[in-house]
Amino acid sequence: MKKIFALLILFYTCFGILEAQNIWEPLNLPGSLRGVNTQGDLFCIQYTHPINLLRSLDEGETWETVFTGNIGNCIIGDKGRIFLIDDNIVYYSDDNGDTWQQTSPINDGTGYNPFSYMRMVSPSNDTLVGWKSPFLIWTLDGGLTWDSTHIAFMENDQEVSSLLVNENGDVYASIWRNIGPNIGVYHTTLSDMRNWELVAFEGLGIKDMAFDPEGNLLCGVDFDGNFSGFEHIPGFYAFRASKVDVSDNGILYKPSIPNANTAVLAYSFDHGEHFYNTFENLPVSELLPTNLSMGWDNRLYFVGDGQFWRSIPYADDIPSIFTLFSDWYYEILNDDGNISYQHLEYVGDTLFDRAGKRPKVIVRSNTHYDRSEITEVTHEYVYEEDGKVYWWNKTTEEFTTLYDFWANVGDEWDIKVGNETITVHVDAIDESYEYNNRNYRALHITDANDIFSGTIICGLGHLTSFFPEKLMTQGKRSNVEGLRCYWRDGILAYKDGERDCDEIYQQLHNGIEEDNPSTDAGALTVYPNPASGVLFVETVNAPSLPDPTYRITNLMGQTLLQGAINAETQQINIASLPAGMYFIISAGETRKFVVK
């Protein structure tokens, strides 16, 4: 069953933290795990005589029998109904296995019954589709009537490795074989079920499939040839994997064997283009990663060849500070007494590989309150490992430790800023720093010159300045004074006092008032903002500018559009830009605008 709760993101808290601790504990699994329901209860089939369906209400500690018979399979439907196959009869339960109702018998008229050990999927309580190559059965009325067919396009040695059905009635079947014709991903509808169309990855054997929350189809490929590891057809993604699961927040998981001795779980934010290993390594001799199930209870269940592992939940789990759609908003006190702001946003992972890592990109920009004048934009590169946050020193071209979340009192670490080094010392630790009814781990640190002294919160960052700004901005008459607002995954996770962070978030992500051109005193004005199709750029004395050109970049700093400025009001066609936030640079100034 492919069911993962969105809170699984808590499992890779401060990614390296989980790798540094043994989060796995072995349990005795009395049978073959069939999945986890919405309440966190486990179900497995015990192959005795007769066969038992077992249920655990305590995360695998104890088990009870809820059905006995000649059970071939158990399916936990997407809408809560539990199905099982007993000979050629399908039973279902709507009360978590306490009582069972019988459907009509399945009979294809041939006298041959391949259905007892079929694998099945259930997108609704009325729809159940099952397969055992090359046969297919389905019901659209809760089991009152059944239909069946033989999948005619398959070769004799091929098999359906995975079958998915969405609520719209689209059915996708993946055909597996390392080589040979007629393998790939096929599509039909619940109203048809006999006519199939090859829609993706012709010639690639697909081992497993899963939908992501946007409806894309993610395919694990088992291929002996020259496979690049990331093949994209609109709506379809393929990567090397034997098992695939996707969380409700879109994170992709697969079992992985990074070397001959260990097995881990790998995750991806970008449909499988880049994978990162997480969780404790497990000896391959004890675990062959043949299955995985995600729980609804801050636990993860990982099933191997004869071994059942359960992850240990942490009561004080804190999510990684680098989750998608994370924003930090700091106040800047200028020498003239005015307040401006610094906005940092995690926008994605880099495409380059530094020291064996794929850092995350933080866009760092300083702006006045009206957000129209941006005085500085930089891209910083960070990653987390073993409870530490590392920051790329662009001067020395090496990573330096920025935070050590799991340091103890008396510990020190060096931060290299440019060609200088500061040593921070952990003076005290608060293991139960409370904010908004949640406990965090807080490190109170100091350094000799009071450059980075302050409080670091695991899962939030530094409460004074994200980076050692006093060294980064030497000679500039400004100073970062403190974190006002922090959003994790677009949800407010921290604010200073009674600040109105919701309004700030809307300003940062929805642009300024529509059709209202910026009115700062600089040489560059852009409007409307948000824009759609066309952006107008006004410059002062455009022909006499030292560099009468413009350049439009995305948040990653990649140049998307560029051209010459020939008039004081230049019209730029931005119809090719997807919805999102962008920067335009011209005349030595930078402006931020939104495409809607």
Overview of the molecule:
With 596 residues, the protein is mainly beta. The chain is built from three helices and 48 strands. The chain has an eight-stranded antiparallel beta sheet. The chain has a five-stranded antiparallel beta sheet with strand order 35-36-37-38-39, with no helix packed on it. The longest helix has 10 residues, at 501-510.
Helix content: under 10%
Class from helix and strand fractions: mainly beta
The low-confidence parts are: 1-22, 284-298, 313-318, 511-521
The value of Rg in angstroms is 28 Å
Largest sheet: 8 strands, antiparallel
Question: What's the β-strand tally?
Answer: 48
Number of helices: 3
Distance between the termini: 38 Å
Beta-strand percent range: over 45%
Strand arrangement across the biggest beta sheet: 34-33-32-31-30-29-40-41
What's the rounded overall pLDDT mean? 77
Silhouette: globular
In brief:
This protein has three helices and 48 strands. With 596 residues, the protein is mainly beta.
Which tags fit this structure?
single chain, 596 residues, mainly beta, eight-stranded antiparallel sheet, five-stranded antiparallel sheet, 3 helices
Helices and strands in order:
Elements: H1 16-20, E1 24-27, E2 32-36, E3 42-46, E4 51-56, E5 64-69, E6 71-76, E7 82-86, E8 89-93, E9 101-102, E10 119-121, E11 128-132, E12 135-139, E13 147-150, E14 159-165, E15 170-176, E16 184-189, E17 197-200, E18 206-211, E19 217-221, E20 231-233, E21 236-240, E22 245-246, E23 252-256, E24 262-268, E25 276-283, E26 291-294, E27 300-303, E28 308-311, E29 326-334, E30 339-349, E31 360-367, E32 374-385, E33 388-393, E34 398-404, E35 412-417, E36 420-435, E37 438-447, E38 454-457, E39 461-462, H2 469-472, E40 478-488, E41 491-495, H3 501-510, E42 524-532, E43 534-539, E44 549-553, E45 559-564, E46 569-573, E47 580-586, E48 589-595
Parallel strand pairs: 19-21
Antiparallel strand pairs: 1-28, 2-3, 3-4, 4-5, 6-7, 7-8, 8-9, 10-11, 11-12, 12-13, 14-15, 15-16, 16-17, 18-19, 20-21, 22-23, 23-24, 24-25, 26-27, 27-28, 29-30, 29-40, 30-31, 31-32, 32-33, 33-34, 35-36, 36-37, 37-38, 38-39, 40-41, 42-43, 43-46, 44-45, 44-47, 47-48
